[in-house]
Design brief:
heterodimer; A: 246 residues; mainly alpha; two-stranded antiparallel sheet; globular; B: 302 residues; alpha/beta; 4-stranded antiparallel β-sheet; 13 strands; elongated
Chain lengths: 246, 302
Amino acid sequence: MSAFTKITAMELRLHWREPAVVLFGLLLPVALLAGFGMAPGVSKPDPANGGLSLGQYIASIAVTLAVTIMGLTVVPTALATYREKGILRRLSASPAPPAALLGAQLVVNVLTACFATVVLLVLGALLFGVAPPADPLMFVVAFALAVGAIFGVGLLIAALAPSARAGNGIGMITMFPSLFFAGFYIPWSAMPEFMRRVSDFTPLGASIQAVRAAWLGDPVHPLHLVIMAGYAVVAGALAARFFRWS
Amino acid sequence: MDVIEVANLRKSYSDHVAVDDVSLSVERGEIFGVLGPNGAGKTTTVECVAGLRSPDSGTIRVLGLDPGRDRAGLRRRLGVQLQASELPEKMKVREALEMYASFYEHPADWRALLDEWGLAEKRDTRYGKLSGGQKQRLSIALALVGNPEIAVLDELTTGLDPQARRDTWALIERIRDGGVTVVLVTHFMEEAERLCDRVAVIDSGRVAALDTPEALVQRVGGGEQRIRFRPSAPVEDRMLTDLPDVREVVRDGRQITVVGTGNVLHAVTSVLARNQIVAADLRVDAADLDDAFIAITGHRID
């Protein structure tokens, strides 16, 4: 346990020495929120969008985007780099369990995603009048499952990527279609029916809908919770099965 | 006493056989060389010894442990300096040593290692800013931070300039003098000849020879030496051929070449001195480990 604590503390320190990564994960979602937050009538409920205000719509996207950036691009790139440079190999030659480094990377990047989410909630409320989640408990559950699903997929990419460049590339290639199906580019309400069905079964689509429902206080669709949990368990298990230390 | 015993080790990868049949044993307190060309199976052999790979067949005992079954126990007692294993760019020297020290129950004093390996001034420097030599020294210090009984050092002078290489040799002797058994993987003949108490010559996944560097050299022409010089006064052949260790005398113009064994150099210089003859341009050529390697394997190392 002490090796895990030690490695996590070290990874946190290294993480803060890479301001670009931290800023990428934080600034992009905040910029998204701020950009749309300037629009007139941002906090008014929009009947065309299921009673959701533009502010809430964008804020729920921004929260999921923060998790996605850390889970799908930062984690696979960092772990594939550690493997390519033999950092994992060196660790596996010491008495420390190399899985501790995996755990540490998860802790650090999940913490960053949580930090970005808190910043988004506070900024959204203070600057753009975005109401806080109406069902806080369900919001935390949906957020936790979203983190599990998206980071699970990120870990699987890290396990399969043959190099650091490939890790980054596969992460990006996974991220952009996921964003598309999750309604980042065209509003969910404007999607054709079949696209919404596909969206239900993607980790990001399920995540964003669950997070949004909890935010509004609407009942969260059980299917979305099951889909997220499924991705977390299956992708996580496959990652554990195929992860190579060198 | 043997601290490492390897018997009939075999390991193949999907496309080729890396180690065909390797048996060797390493005694406590020696510097044991694993010498051979790139791709001979040296690294795979020591990785199996360190428990980083599982062999297909054969048995390995390290400090009485089976590296495959008791990885945890072995890692506390064996330090490894691996080829091409880096640290995160932004990790500081001090942080790396401190963190790796924390993984062991009875670590070495990492501050003392900083001084000993000439890294004290670089303690707060990030890994990415270190020179090749400094990275190499940090890597060795990390292999020693757990106070190991055995240190496995894989190709640690590759990529270093000649001066840095010589400095590293002195440090390796110091590890051994500290009571640690050293397994040194190398493809530098000079390094093996200079440092190793015993050498296993590995070629195409097999042990081609295992002996002291001197004994390996001795195998080539029985330790024959060639002494060449130009005498300041005429020398009769018989003055030289009568000497006990001389095998042959060859003349080429004014130059004389004496071929012999054992104490032939001393015998020749003594007889010349007694006759007040000065040997100008005196040169002695003897077989070295390079020649021995060619004789043993039938090809050059690189």
